[in-house]
Amino acid sequence: MPETMRLVVFKETRARLPIGRIRRLFSVLVRGESKAGTSGQINLIICTDSRIRSLNRRFRGIDRATDVLSFNLDSLGRVDSILGEIYISAPYATRQAHRLGRGLYDEYLLLFCHGLLHLFGHDHDIEKRERAMFDLQTRYLNALRRKG
């Protein structure tokens, strides 16, 4: 991973996070997705349903909470750039993990991976791109599991 890529985590809730695994996933994904010379900061914000709902309404015109939102903020290249932000709703992630029978930490890792892939230009707006993006999610999450 380039020395100049860094992750900063902000918690607006009391949610417990698998911080070590999130950082390892960040390292694995950045190594696989970033271009030579990529530098800057990515912020991960763990927030409430009301905060993510407000962002979803403001930026996507959808007036409801969601699990994860990603925002590209700055162009690549400057060490002091904030490249993007990933918002994960802790309450939404908790409900979703329970509903889908997944562990909460696994849900956080999946959502973080999904948001990070969006920041690196991947999308799931059409079926072909959705398959490709979800295959990448699986690949990176499996690589994380192999690393421990």
Can you say what the CATH homologous superfamily is? Metalloproteases ("zincins"), catalytic domain
Structural class: alpha/beta
Low-confidence stretches: none
Number of domains: 1
**What would the average pLDDT be, to the nearest integer?**
90
Largest sheet: 4 strands, mixed
Q: Which strand order does the major sheet show? A: 1-2-4-3
* CATH fold label: Collagenase (Catalytic Domain)
User: Tell me, what's the shape?
Assistant: globular
- What is the helix content? 40-55%
Beta strands, count:
4
Radius of gyration: 15 Å
> What's the CATH class label?
Alpha Beta
**Element order: H for helix, E for strand:** EHEHEEHHH
The CATH architecture is: 3-Layer(aba) Sandwich
Q: What's the helix and strand layout?
A:
Layout: E1 5-11, H1 19-33, E2 40-47, H2 49-60, E3 68-72, E4 82-89, H3 90-100, H4 104-119, H5 127-147
Parallel strand pairs: 1-2, 2-4
Antiparallel strand pairs: 3-4
Helix pairs in contact: 1-4, 1-5, 3-4, 4-5
Q: Summary?
A:
By secondary structure, the protein is of the alpha/beta class. Helices cover 51% and strands 19% of the residues.
